[in-house]
Amino acid sequence: MSLHPPLHRRALAGTAATALAVALVAGGALGASAAPDGSGRSTLRALAQSAAGLKIGTAINTDQLGSNTRYDQIAGSQFSTVTPENVMKWDAIEPKRGQFDYTAADELVRFARQHHQLVRGHTLVWYNQLPQWLVDLGPFLTSKQTAAILKQHITEEMTHFKGKIWQWDVVNEAFNEDGTLRDNLWLEKIGPSYIEKAFRWAHEADPKALLFYNDYNIEYAGPKQDGAYALVRGLVRKGVPIDGVGFQTHLDTQYGIPDLETSMQRFANLGLRTAETEVDVRTTLPVTATEQSAQNAGYSESLQACLLVRACISYTVWGFGDAYSWIPGVFAGEGSADLYDANLVAKPQYFALQSVLRTAKGVPHRS
Ligand code: 9MR
Description:
Blueprint: H1 16-30, H2 44-50, E1 55-60, H3 69-78, E2 81-84, H4 90-93, H5 103-114, E3 118-125, H6 132-137, H7 143-160, E4 167-172, H8 185-190, H9 193-205, E5 210-215, H10 223-237, E6 244-247, E7 250-252, H11 260-268, E8 273-284, H12 289-308, E9 312-317, H13 327-330, E10 334-335, H14 348-359
Parallel strand pairs: 1-2, 1-9, 2-3, 3-4, 4-5, 5-6, 6-8, 7-8, 8-9
Antiparallel strand pairs: 8-10
Helix pairs in contact: 1-12, 1-14, 2-14, 7-9, 11-12, 12-14
């Protein structure tokens, strides 16, 4: 997939925020947290809870879960919510038509229960990671048949997990960078109403789950954010059951840090919740001191934005260990985007988040 640079961006170099982040990191690194997993006395989840009841989460690679002790220990202790990185996607859940496989996803839900964590469900309606049978069938489907397949998928999966999912990413990445709707099977066959329909079907299946629209690059002001805003404002006005908007927040030091506080508040003003759902901050390798500072600032500022917006209910990183990150496979020469290094040792980014949470006096967050 391509995560294109946004049109509007703020330069990083020399900002006060960068200087602040550097100071925070220095403080954190010299502080009490000497444990190799970075937990020390204060885990991110405990600090986030004290800082106005914010939930802090991570995407989970279920290949590691149960087979990598250190991975399990960090996942279970540092975070209060988990998101399946891949195992709730359509290709994983229904690899053959009518044959459902919930094994890995159920294991993750069990892990979350054991560790008193909430689950973000990801994701029901997307153009990507569709099972091959559906890709092959797509061109032959009528509009009615496509809608029936989509409704069945949403209903089947959400019913399986009913009562166990806190937030669902119902529709994922429906927009192009220019703010038009992305061409995909759903748009081609059903038309733009597929989005509204998906939210209605999702609400019928699990009325208590919080239903989110989720996308990347809507963190930045510009046509893509405007497109998403117009869409969700329309949904809210029509009474469609949408609860929130997820800002993925896949940042890259070369593009600067978006004004997430303003962006999230814009959507919050519609009465919606917001969340940062897939945070990581990549950079070109090897990491220089300047890039390290920029990465720390990316994490610190994005977390601060969530703390400042009352409607922002969770801050989720897209995995925590560089060894399992999706970045090197997609962006050649880039990486080091996560909180922990390849040996699962906490990096300055981790301490930057810790410091922000230690000093945070956020307003109480919605739940
Ligand atoms: O991290 C996921 C990676 O393991 C998959 O190969 C990839 C397939 O598209 O999806 C990645 O997760 C994506 C997420 O589901 C939606 N937003 C962008 C994420 C990074 O590509």
